[in-house]
Amino acid sequence: MRSLVLKVRNIASLRRSDSRLFGWDRSQILIAILLFGLGLIMLLPLIYIFNHALKPYSELFIFPPNIFVMNPTLSNFTELFVVTRDSTIPASRYLFNSILIAVLATVAVTVVSALCAYPLAKHKFPGARALFFVIIVSLMFVPETMQIPRYVVVSSLGIMNTYWAHVLPHVAAPVSVFLMKQFMDQVPNELLEAARIDGAREFTIFLRIVMPVCMPAVATVAILQFQNIWGNNETSILFMTDDAMKTFPYFLQTLTQNLANSVARQGAAAAASLVMIVPTLIVFLVFQRKVIATMAHSGIK
């Protein structure tokens, strides 16, 4: 009887080992295949944009459209920077403005949001709840409702046609403050009290203890704000009358306007679309691990 039981156990173990591949069972393999297929589907728009930017005019308008380019060319990128050759403002100026503004504004939003979230999370001063309630309420307003107040403020400050007008409207970011505050709430108060007992000042605690712990939230805020600022053309339309101070998204918007036909400059527009995608893709790939850590973070042990 004992030998029969051992044989049954050996057969069961062999079946289990046969059903596993590289330490995975069948259900895990099926899930991995399903996720891989979904990942490929999600990559299709990105693949199409990369291939579309390399298509000659003969392939840009064929029907049905091809995802993959058959005769790749860089002429679209040449056209993108040649199209403004006779203009006083080259395309490189718009691109420089966008890069500078996106970097400065992203850093400013991240720093200001962290400085605002820290006292709300760790200092229960009078009116803290009311202030946080105002921040929550401000999330309900659509961006269009803020255009007129922003224009009045920027005009009153006298910063029209300056980089300040590009950066300052983005600094007040309720979503970023909310995310940072919720993350800082998870930092143990005992850790901060121990630092105060050791003689650390508030700025030292904030800079050397709180911020390193909250780096996943900082990376998430940076990615979201960079994506928003990089593709924003509102400041160029509302606050800039000098073309030399406008950004690349504004240039992309006007690239194919006021033309006699819908074919001209489509190659340049395809190349410009790729230029708009690449920086946000690079930023996301650099900080993706921090974003995943933020999503999976459920508490600090």
Question: Could you explain the architecture of this structure?
Answer:
It is built from 15 helices and no strands. With 301 residues, the protein is mostly helical. It has two domains: 22-73, no CATH class; 88-296, MetI-like (MetI-like fold, Orthogonal Bundle). Helix 4 packs across helix 15 (266-296), helix 9 (174-184) packs antiparallel against helix 12 and helix 10 (189-197) packs antiparallel against helix 11 (202-213). It is flat and about 70 Å long. It comes from Paenibacillus chungangensis.
Write the layout of secondary structure elements.
Blueprint: H1 2-18, H2 26-53, H3 57-60, H4 75-82, H5 91-122, H6 128-138, H7 147-157, H8 163-171, H9 174-184, H10 189-197, H11 202-213, H12 215-230, H13 234-239, H14 248-253, H15 266-296
Top-tier CATH class of the largest domain: Mainly Alpha
Question: What's the architecture of the largest domain in CATH terms?
Answer: Orthogonal Bundle
Helix content: over 70%
Major sheet details = none
CA radius of gyration is: 27 Å
Average pLDDT works out at 81
Shape: flat
Structural domain tally: 2
